Amino acid sequence: MTTPWVAEAVRRIERDFQRSADTHLFPIELPALAGVQIYLKDESTHPTGSLKHRLARSLFLYGLCNGWIREGTTVIESSSGSTAVSEAYFARLLGLPFVAVMPRSTSAAKVAQIAFYGGRSHFVERGDQVYGEAARLARECGGHYMDQFTHAERATDWRGNNNIAESIFTQMRAEPHPVPRWIVVGAGTGGTSATIGRYLRYQGHASELCVVDPEHSVFFDYWNDRTRPEVTTDRPSRIEGIGRPRVEPSFVPGVIDRMLRVPDAASFAALRVLEQRLGRRFGGSTGTDFCGALQLASEMRARGEAGSIVTLACDGGERYLDTCYDDAWLRAQGHDIAPWVRRLEAACDSGAWAPG
């Protein structure tokens, strides 16, 4: 039986959704790629500033409708930051306590945003410790461990219901090439790639899905050799929001048509290139996405193909002023982005991708 509190909680989330406009989709003007148009879907315009706003809304509705979240339930999540920010927002909307379990290296701006929405941050030293610690805290307080890495691919309705894939195709209807040749995304939980890949098949679209993976992430290795689901790494991804040290339950390799590994220095360099061309700053995962989209666009141009490519701006750059946009931080991390800035600028200006 649905309790009055749960019914009102669902209504609050739906009202919040109705008050929110869709995110913008805008073209990146690169004349050298004649006939191939790259579009960037700007997910930073969500109320909590990132793509994870969609996931958090779905996870809360999933938890409410499964009977896991009730009045007074403490909600706990393992997160590198953006999902926690968005879940803190929805927890405050419902008047629920929220705790984010995250690596100590998470950007200070994200920690501050979680606190702004009334959430509490609980730190661990390594990224692979977040799962067990979140589960332990939930057991101790009788709360609900949201577990985005398990539930992301099943909490979102991949058939439609204004998911991100449906939104992309709705916004592309009037474009010269309304059915994208490629959609390019990164993988954190794997939920976004699963949603888009399933939607493409359900709707019968000819679009292909490319997932870009940063260094120190195992998704690329597993996709190439699916006999190794146990593959892990003890080095955390340096691109917040994407890349994982283990194969997450929500990662569905069968819906992915191609994967590309993107060097971290290339991802950070791409942010500078995008800033010069768009006048806007985005987070590191957007740089990874853009590198993949630019490589695919260059390959299409080399084959004489015309068409469109859609990729995502996952969050805004204001959260990363002390990391991705700080030259001292980049040097301290061992990143020399200047060669990659030159290579990416050359690719934008010539339409030719230089492998390396």
How would you summarize the topology of this molecule?
Layout lengths: L3 H15 L5 E5 L7 E7 L9 H14 L9 E4 L3 H13 L3 E6 L4 H9 L3 E5 L5 H12 L2 E2 L2 H8 L8 H8 L10 E5 L4 H13 L4 E6 L5 H6 L33 E4 L2 H15 L5 H19 L4 E7 L13 H6 L5 H13 L6
Parallel strand pairs: 2-10, 3-4, 3-6, 4-5, 7-8, 7-10, 8-9
Antiparallel strand pairs: 1-2
Helix pairs in contact: 1-2, 2-3, 2-6, 3-4, 6-8, 10-11, 10-13
Structure description:
- The chain contains 13 helices and ten strands.
- It has helices at residues 4-18, 52-65, 82-94, 108-116, 130-141, 148-155, 164-171, 191-203, 219-224, 264-278, 284-302, 327-332, 338-350, and strands at 24-28, 36-42, 75-78, 98-103, 120-124, 144-145, 182-186, 208-213, 258-261, 307-313.
- It is globular.
- The longest helix is centred in the C-terminal third of the chain and has 19 residues, at 284-302.
- The protein has two domains: 13-51 and 159-350, Rossmann fold, CATH 3.40.50.1100; 53-152, Rossmann fold.
- The model has no long low-confidence stretch (mean pLDDT 94).
- Helix 3 runs parallel beside helix 4, helix 6 (148-155) packs parallel to helix 8 (191-203) and helix 10 crosses helix 11 (284-302).
